[in-house]
């Protein structure tokens, strides 16, 4: 028979250590954590070290700045694929000066590389103001290419020939030229000499119009040949 427990039998206190806390007469045992739980805690600490280094310590391609540069480079490659490899010359600077959709490329490159000296809006910081009518190293719009590629001011303006692609240099030149006459938030005092206005937009035939004008003579010639062949194949009607 099983023995029925009474209140007198339920007076024994376990030998397990107590924490010393009491809640409404209820005491708390000081039991150790399970071994598996401790090992999970230790493994989490060990895992956090490489995790922190990889995701928050500047691992390659993981920082916000690097992610932006990668996205910018991908976008530039897509847009440059449409226009091909450009020649760094005056004509292209003028050409893209009047193409607002392409100026956004030069603006992106300018924001990434030039704002520390010229300000985000070209008003000038350490470098000169790019929005007024006076220039230190530019007398003609084509001079932007030379200044960007080779630098100026005995190193004050660094050379970018080995840092930027030819397309980027052309686009930045056009964008900087487009800043002329704009109103920056904080404009530095003019430096240099006043120069003539930029040349007007070139009067060039669009590619579609050029292709159409080339196709029209070919179609006309093809049509004439066809008519001649058809007329030669028709049987002659005898005279009555």
From TrEMBL:
Chain segments annotated as coiled-coil in the UniProt record: none
Gene3D superfamilies in the record: 6.10.280.130, Cytochrome c-like domain
Keywords from the UniProt entry: Electron transport, Heme, Iron, Membrane, Metal-binding, Transmembrane, Transmembrane helix, Transport
Stretches that traverse the bilayer: 36-54
InterPro entries cross-referenced by the UniProt entry: CcoP_N, CcoP_N_sf, Cyt_c-like_dom, Cyt_c-like_dom_sf, Cyt_C_IC, Cytochrome_c_Oxidase_Subunit
SUPFAM superfamilies: Cytochrome c
Biased composition (Acidic residues): 204-240
MF terms in GO: electron transfer activity; heme binding; iron ion binding
Region (Disordered): 186-240
Superkingdom of source: Bacteria
Residue span(s) of domain Cytochrome c: 101-180
PANTHER family: CBB3-TYPE CYTOCHROME C OXIDASE SUBUNIT FIXP
Protein's name according to its UniProt entry: Cbb3-type cytochrome c oxidase subunit CcoP2
Species of provenance: Rubripirellula amarantea
